UniProtKB/TrEMBL annotation:
One of its GO terms (cellular component) is plasma membrane. It comes from Halomonas salipaludis. It is found in: Cell inner membrane. Residues 2-246 form the ABC transporter domain. This is Phosphonate ABC transporter ATP-binding protein. The gene is phnC.
Amino acid sequence: MLTLSAVTKRYATGDLALNDIHLSLPRGQVMALIGPSGAGKSTLIRCVNRLVEPSGGSIHLEDTELTGLSSGRLRQARRAMAMIFQEYALVDRLTVMENVLSGRLGYVGFWRSFLRRYPKTDVIEAFRLLERVGLGHALDKRADALSGGQRQRVGIARALLQDPRLLLVDEPTASLDPKTSRQIMRLIRELCAERDLAAIINIHDVSLARQFADRIVGLRGGEIVFDGKPGELNAEILTTIYGEEDWSNEEGEEDADDAMQVTPAPALAMGGGR
Ligand SMILES: Nc1ncnc2c1ncn2[C@@H]1O[C@H](COP(=O)(O)OP(=O)(O)OP(=O)(O)O)[C@@H](O)[C@H]1O
C-alpha cells in the first residue's frame, strides 16, 4: 500500500539524510524503524507525509504518487496518513474530546473546527475511540491534566479519528516508563490488527520493536542495512545497524504471545464501526 522508490533527502545544510531508499509496506503490516541517532528515521517518516520534502525518488500511497502533489491534493492525501508524535502534540487547554475531534480537521475545514461544530457522527466515533483506548472516563479532562501514557492514548485516538490507512509513528514511547511503553505499543499493535492499518514506527527501543512489530527495518547513515523479521535480529545484525557493542541483553526470542494478542474492540451501543 506504501512504496518508496529511490528516495533521497539532502538537507540544505548538505547532510544526506536518506540515500536511495526502496521500501514497500503491505496493508496491515506494523514495521519498526530502528537505527542510531541521525540515521534518518524521522526524515524517512516525514518524507512520506511530506512534512519534509524528499530531494529525489517517488513515494506511492496505493495509487497516489505523493511527491508530485500540489498542496490542495496533498492535504487530501494526508487524510490517509495519520501521525502519532513523541511529545503527543496535544493542545493543553482543550479537553480530551476536543483534542480527539481535531483529528477531523482535514475533513471539516478550519472554521467548522474552530467553532467546534463537528458533525454528530464524528463526535460519536470520537466517543467510541476514547472508550477503545481506555479514556472513556476522561472525555472532559483538560489535556494538561493527563499522564504521559494517557496523553499518548489521546494522540492515538486523534490519529484514528482521521480514519487513516497508514500510521506514521515517531518515537511513541520516548517519554514513557517501561510498563506504559509496552501498553502503548500493544495498543498500537492491536488497533492496526483490528483496522487492517499499516504502520511505520520510529523507535529506539530494540526490545519493544522486536516484541511488537511484524517487520524491522534498520537504517544507518541514511541507508537500509537490515530488513527482516524480529526473530532475525541477532548480535551481528545489531552491530551492522548500531556498531560494535555487547548485544547479549538484546538477543533472544520475542514474546510472540504478547505481541500477537489482540483484544476485540468493545461493542458499543452507539453504532457500527467505520
Ligand atoms: N532540518 C534539518 N536540517 C538539516 N539537517 C537535518 C535536519 N533534520 C535532520 N537533519 C540531519 O539529517 C540526518 C538524519 O536525521 P534524522 O533526525 O532523520 O535522524 P533520526 O534517525 O531520526 O535521529 P534521532 O533518532 O536522533 O531522532 C542527521 O544527520 C541530521 O543531522
